[in-house]
Design goal:
The chain has helices at 12-25, 32-43, 55-65, 68-77, 81-105, 114-129, 132-149, 157-165, 168-187, 209-222, 271-285, 305-314, 323-337, 357-366, and strands at 2-4, 48-51, 200-204, 242-248, 251-257, 265-266, 269-270, 289-294, 342-348, 369-375, 385-391, 398-402. The protein is of the alpha/beta class. It has a 6-stranded mixed beta sheet with strand order 8-5-9-10-11-12, with helices on both faces. Strand 9 (342-348), helix 14 and strand 10 (369-375) form a beta-alpha-beta unit.
């Protein structure tokens, strides 16, 4: 019969979803009935009143539904198939782990052992579901990130939040994205999204502050391309110190350093959060953008929220940066995909300033321009054009100031 009165257990769709939940969970100790209930208590508001074929499952499920864990998880899963499937798989795993733990407690449903047994049930639920506060916060962050990046890049924030919330290490690293979202609007000042996507060739605008102001108005009036604007720190990160001279590119290729040193904080802000904010701003402003992260290895291009979260949280932040390997991989990728007219921008803290000049020369032959965007005051590799991103001294955020071009 089943516990839920608002579920038709014989319906083919119900059975198909239950089978998917079973396959996703990998458990062997429950059947289709329990899997269907694990799915539909999240997908819709449950109506209890039936009878379960397993008293243990019935008690476990009703205990879960009455808990604050359920309130947090169900709030992000309603009418969401992917999130409900993720939650169902995790609930079934928690139940199987609970059954295994009962061997240590004994099957004492009444009397002295009952309280300990159900306390163990809640421990297993927490282990497989994560902290309720983390679920809600991560869902908010991922949903906001999806809204910024736009349709087709959002993925499923609820399922992603459930996946990340169970690992405390991944939760800590995912909070980098929350800080990046705070910084992204200010990073957007580096880009002018009114024109076609791309960067602009620059000419140094010497002279007084008024001349710099006129150069900014001139750049806006031209409305050509979506240039990388290097902003004068004394002008509150709003006045460009370069003036447009030529046309725009077809796209932007970003290489973002995520080595161990990037996870260090400067003035309370992680450098990786600044770099991630730069990537978010680029994805938001430009249509043709390739974003790849690198440390000792070079990761696949980022195309949506799920891949961005996966790269930032699943890979352990360890020491080691290979800029030469990253630039070489970007060059080969651009050649194989025929990304003509793209500008390459390498965002790094400059801990590794070794760059093979032969690789740099090959990159210049493929990309229209090659820029290094440095976070902090480390020494850049020689013979490259440089811009610097500094953390604001008066308030949390990002200011950009020009770095002297060092093009060969």
């Amino acid at each position: 019969m089943g516990l839920l009165l608002n579920v038709d257990y014989s319906d083919p769709l119900v059975r198909a979803r239950a089978l998917r939940a079973l396959r996703a969970s990998g458990v062997k100790s429950v059947g289709i009935e329990e899997a269907a209930e694990a799915y539909y208590v999240h997908y819709r508001s449950p109506i209890f009143g039936g009878r379960s074929s397993s008293p243990v499952w019935e008690r476990f499920l009703t205990t879960y539904v009455k808990s604050h864990y359920y309130r947090a998880v169900a709030g992000v899963c309603r009418l969401n198939h992917k999130a409900s499937l993720e939650a169902a798989a995790r609930l079934l795993r928690a139940f199987e782990s609970y059954l295994k733990s009962l061997e240590n407690y004994g099957r004492a449903w009444f009397g002295r052992g009952a309280r300990e047994a159900w306390a163990e049930a809640m421990r297993q639920i927490r282990r497989h579901m994560g902290d309720p506060a983390d679920v809600a916060e991560l869902h908010r962050v991922f949903k906001k990130l999806g809204e910024i990046l736009g349709r087709g890049r959002s993925g499923d924030p609820a399922a992603l939040a459930l996946s990340v919330a169970t690992d405390p290490r991944r939760v800590r690293l995912a909070r980098v994205l929350a800080r990046a979202l705070e910084l992204a609007p200010r990073m957007g000042l580096l880009f002018d999204g009114r024109g076609r996507p791309g960067f602009i060739e620059w000419e140094r605008a010497y002279g007084s502050l008024s001349r710099i102001g006129r150069a900014a108005l001139y750049a806006k009036a031209l409305s050509v391309g979506a240039p990388l604007l290097f902003l004068h720190k004394a002008a509150w990160a709003e006045i460009p110190v370069y003036r447009a001279r030529g046309g725009g590119d077809k796209g932007v290729y970003l290489l973002i350093d995520k080595s161990g040193s990037m996870y260090g904080a400067v003035k309370g802000v992680e450098k990786i959060a600044v770099a991630a904010a730069y990537a978010i701003a680029a994805l938001r402003r430009f249509k043709n953008v390739v974003v790849r992260f690198f440390d000792a290895e070079v990761y696949e291009p980022i195309s949506d929220v799920e891949k961005l979260v996966d790269v930032l949280t699943r890979v352990v932040a360890s020491g080691g940066t290979d800029i030469t390997k990253a630039v070489e991989a970007a060059t080969e990728d651009a050649k194989s995909r025929r990304l003509e007219g793209y500008t390459l921008a390498v965002v790094t803290d400059g801990e590794d300033d070794k760059l093979n000049p032969v690789v740099l020369k090959e990159a210049r032959a493929v990309f229209k321009e090659v820029w290094f965007v440095l976070i902090g005051d480390s020494k850049p590799p020689p013979y490259v054009r440089v811009a610097r991103l500094f953390l604001g001294e008066d308030r949390p955020g990002v200011n950009a100031v020009e770095g002297p071009p060092r093009a060969v």
